[in-house]
Design goal:
- By secondary structure, the protein is of the alpha+beta class.
- Helices cover 27% and strands 23% of the residues.
- The strands form six sheets. It has a five-stranded antiparallel sheet with strand order 6-7-13-11-12.
- It starts with 5 loop residues before the first helix and ends with a strand.
- The structure holds flavin-adenine dinucleotide (FAD).
- The site of flavin-adenine dinucleotide has 33 residues, from strand 3, helix 4 and strand 9.
């Protein structure tokens, strides 16, 4: 039975400040994506999420939209944009609400002379998005500092319950698919906040030099195959600068696809498939997308 019953539509339309049929492009770093049937921005998503699930409405929580390729045909059901930006400190631990940006959390921690999250300056997504796939940067991963994840309805998980690994977790590929992440605690250490801020500034400058992070993109398109780099393989297959519509494989770093303005998800998908085919043919390596497709 379709979820589009009169009662469900009335419930969705009664949600405070809900938007119907609004493009998701403006909520993704790629600036690509068709409309969500219903889009809700909230800092308290838990009960609405659970109610929607209970009503059989397809529901998806997103953060900063920095690892998403949203389909041109949009997303069915309810998309909840989580803007829970709570920050708390308890001794040497910090808590970030799921909608708090990892970069911001790293800066807030440094301001309190707590160190250990500097690597997160390279992750433009939120706490929720970072837990969802164990984001990492500069050789460090979120799981190394993670203490506990909080979900809706008082659920709590320890890192060992989450199957965290290179760009994966039980939320992305396991039994916790569809669970809401409400926030997470991270174990840091007392240290020199000024030195931490300097380190973050150096890392940011290095990324600006080597990656097209100022353009409209989704970060790394492919996961790095064991012992190699996806960018090196795509470049060696001759695809730097390859173009489909308004999407181009970055000439600065071949594991990035840039939206030059007006690119569609179909353009990006064609480029992804071309890069996979070229790398498969040339090197016999299967490139696995790191970016996640969302939608119809
Ligand atoms: C310029 C650039 C550089 C990047 N560099 C890095 C990097 O160095 N390392 C790295 O790991 N990543 C990097 N990324 C990718 C991206 O920032 C990370 O994957 C990040 O963790 C995604 O978080 P988000 O909030 O944007 O999630 P979104 O893209 O909004 O969502 C991603 C997935 O997480 C799920 N999700 C989000 N919030 C919740 C929640 N509260 N509860 C349940 N599920 C949720 C969504 O449903 C979706 O499936 C980069 C991206 C860009 C644009």
């Amino acid at each position: 039975m379709s979820w589009r019953t009169e009662a469900n539509l009335a419930w969705l339309r009664a949600l405070p400040r809900v938007e119907e049929g609004k493009p998701l492009a403006r909520h993704t770093s790629f600036n690509i994506g068709g409309p969500a049937d219903f889009l809700l921005e909230t800092a308290e998503p838990a009960s609405i999420h659970d109610d929607a699930v209970g009503r059989g409405i397809p529901v998806r929580v997103i953060g900063a939209g920095t690892n998403l390729l949203v389909s041109d045909a949009g997303v069915e059901g309810l998309v909840i944009r989580d803007v829970d930006r709570r920050f708390r400190r308890l001794e040497d631990r910090v808590f970030g609400g799921a909608g708090l940006k990892m970069m911001r959390l790293a800066r807030l921690a440094a301001d309190q002379d707590l160190v250990g999250l500097e690597f997160a300056i390279g992750i433009p997504g939120t706490v929720g998005g970072a837990i969802y796939q164990d984001a990492g940067c500069w050789g460090r991963e979120v799981r190394e500092v993670l203490v506990e994840v909080e979900g809706g309805g008082g659920r709590r998980w320890k890192p060992e319950d989450l199957d965290l690994g290179y760009r994966t977790s039980a939320f992305r590929e396991g039994p916790l698919r569809g669970e809401l992440i409400s926030g997470a605690w991270f174990q840091l250490a007392p240290g020199d906040g000024a030195a931490a801020r300097e380190q973050m500034a150096r890392w940011t400058a290095e990324r600006v030099r080597t990656q097209p992070i100022k353009s409209k993109n989704c970060g790394s398109v492919f996961k790095n195959p064991a012992g190699d780099s996806a960018g090196r393989l795509v470049e060696a297959a001759g695809l730097k600068g390859a173009r489909e519509g308004a999407a181009v494989i970055s000439t600065k770093h071949a594991n990035f696809i840039e939206n030059l303005g007006g690119a569609t998800a179909a353009d990006v998908r064609r480029l992804v498939e071309r890069a996979q085919a070229a790398v498969r043919e040339r090197f016999g390596v299967e490139l696995e997308p790191e970016v996640e497709e969302l939608g119809r």
